[in-house]
Amino acid sequence: MSQAVFSVLCRDCLGLSVRSFGACPICGSERALGHPELEHLDIAHIDCDAFYASVEKRDNPALNDKPLIVGNPGGRGVVTTACYIARQFGPRSAMPMFKALGMCPHAVVIRPNMAKYKFVSQQIRAIFYDATSVIQPVSL
Description:
By secondary structure, the chain is an alpha+beta fold. The chain has four helices and six strands, in the order βββαββααβα. The chain folds into two domains: about 1-45, Rubrerythrin, domain 2 (Single Sheet); about 50-115, 3-Layer(aba) Sandwich (MutS, DNA mismatch repair protein, domain I), CATH 3.40.1170.60. A three-stranded antiparallel beta sheet has the order 2-1-3, with no helix packed on it. A three-stranded mixed beta sheet has the order 5-4-6. A hairpin with a 5-residue loop joins strand 1 (about 5-10) and strand 2. The longest helix has 18 residues, at about 115-130.
């Protein structure tokens, strides 16, 4: 019995291919999102939650299993975002950093790199523009 073949989006390299599930032919990742109507959807809501933390973890895999907070440490800094691991301990966006670190003292804190996040956001948006010209970005 043959497997169904349809559009599959790799969640690591964002490569789009027509195939059954399995390793991405571009990067070898097993992390994929697929659906028979993936390229024919009329409406899609894309929320890149914990985006800054996700970008940092993508660029430094040693952080993948660590609680990560993106924000300015010390002083009157606030949490820009916290990854899902850190959120289990209570830190949230816009929370004062001292409070977040009180809840999750073992968190790794990285200063925001807005130029990098903007660049990655543009890469993601380019993928959307390949599918449709009707896009309503709400942030970065």
